[in-house]
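Re: weekly structure request thread

Next one in the queue (123 aa):
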Amino acid sequence: QVQLVESGGGLLQAGGSLRLSCAASGRTPNRYSMAWFRQAPGKEHEFVEAISWFGSDTYYADSVKGRFTISRDNAKNTLYLQMNSLKPEDTAVYYCAATPGGISIRRRSYDYWGQGTQVTVSS
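Done, posted below.
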């Protein structure tokens, strides 16, 4: 089992920056591929970015290309999402997820999920 706890969400104006964190605990979380998803009101979960357990491979959604960066610190068992140039359409609950399998952009590939952290971007 792996437990995931997100933090760092908040309310800010468009153009601002925010860094989300996801603290992992449990069974060797640093060996898991991890990802960020988000869910806006009335919409399905949307893939944001993913990273392999060693950090050598990353995937990202076109909607965040050049603005968001995923990273991880395996020594601290923590996943990060640096979000720059935020837009109102980035408003959502952001979730981190983990899988013992390979890196993936598909929600169903991930076995463990955090409770989410709210990000609200005003225009």
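The radius of gyration is 13 Å. The mean pLDDT is 95.
Next request, please.
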